[in-house]
Every structure is written in C-alpha cells, then in structure tokens.
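step: validate -> pass
step: tokenize input -> pass
step: predict -> running
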Amino acid sequence: MRIVCPFCGERELGEFTYLGDAKPQRPAADAGEDAVYDYVYLRDNVAGVMSEHWYHGGGCRAWLKVTRSTLTHEISAVEPTAGAGAAKVGA
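step: predict -> pass
step: emit ->
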C-alpha cells in the first residue's frame, strides 16, 4: 500500500505509522470518567470506509487524516490534520 502525502508526494507504507480511527473526539477536560473511558477504549471495528489518523514519521512528520476502505485498503482521500503542514517540516 502506498500513501500520497500532501507535502511529500507518494510514499511507501513503511514511512507511516497507523494511529487509529479519526472519528472519536477527545472529551472536554471536565468530562466524566465514563466519557474518557469511552474515548480511550470503545472504538468501532468498521468493515468499510473510515477516516484514520496516520503519522508520516519517515518524511515530513505531519499528521494525516486518511480515508480508507478497511475491506480493500483503497485510499480515497489524504489530507493534513489541523495544525499539520509544510511550515512544521524541519522545525
């Protein structure tokens, strides 16, 4: 599988680290224990298209949001996450 980084171009999968489902949102600081537990431990096991976080550690070191089918591994979109960007490369 190859991922097209928006900053570096098409790259080998070995340059990236999978960090999981991009859907869950971190609970507020004053959220209860149950909300934090759900965020950390309860994830959907999607059979189909999902958004995932990937880290390009072997390249620009940007966090990316990759839309990928878990059935075929086909990638339909790659975009930088908030705060990621070429401005941070080499920083």
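step: describe -> The beta strands are 2-5, 9-12, 17-21, 49-55, 63-69, 75-80.
step: cleanup -> pass
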